[in-house]
C-alpha cells in the first residue's frame, strides 16, 4: 500500500466517529511522546480544512518539514524558518506564539509561511500518531489539527542523529560560481565553499580558503543567483562491519539553516 492510499484509508476509517474539535472528521490516533516526535523529520503529506478540502497557500511548496528538539519545534522548507516552544499533554499540543526569520521570497512561498504561522498561532492543537500499520510503509504519520478544524498530516523519516549520532556543526559560504574538478567518476561541476568561523557572540572571526566540494548537501539546492552562508550538520558514517579505526569514514551533509544570503552583484544582504 502506498502512502497516499494509507492516508486515504486512515481518514475514511475515522470519518464515521464523532468529531474531535471543530472538524467534520476524526481520525483514530494515539498520543505521541516528545522522544517519538524528536526521532523523525516530519514531511508534509497534505493540508486540509475541516471538510477535507485542500488548504489554500499550502500548494506552493511541498518541501515543508517539521522538526522537534526538546521542547521546541521548527518548520522549514518554505522561505523562512518558523519556530516555537511547545508542550505535550496527551493528545493536546500547546504552542507558544511562533517566531520567524525575516527573509523575503516569492509571494506564494511567503503566503505559505504566513499560513503556517496562522495555523499554529500560539494555540492548543490536537496531535497524535495515526493508528495505521503497514509493513510496506513503516514510517509513522503525525496528525495535527487546530481549533478551526484545519489539519496537517506529516510523514516521519528517521533523523540523521537517530541513525548516525550527534553531528558536527559547521558554517559554509557557498559561491554562486561552480568549478570543474576531477573525481573518481571523472570531471564534474563542484561547489566552491569556504568555512566561516564565529565566536560565542555570533561575530564572524575567521574565514577559511575556497575549496572544491564534489558532494551533496541534503535539503538544499544550489542557486547561481545567490551567495549563501549555510549552517550544516555533518554526520560521520563509519564503514559497516569493520572494527578498523583507520578505515575511511563517509560524511553526510545536511542543511540546518540558511543564515545569510545575498544576490549576485548586490551588496544588499538578507540576514537571519
Automatic annotation (TrEMBL):
Signal peptide: 1-20
Sequence ranges assigned to domain DUF4377 in this UniProt record: 174-261
InterPro entries linked to this entry: DUF306_Meta_HslJ, DUF4377, HslJ-like_sf, Hsp_HslJ-like
Keywords: Signal
Record Pfam families: DUF4377, META
Residues covered by the DUF306 domain: 36-122
Protein name: DUF4377 domain-containing protein
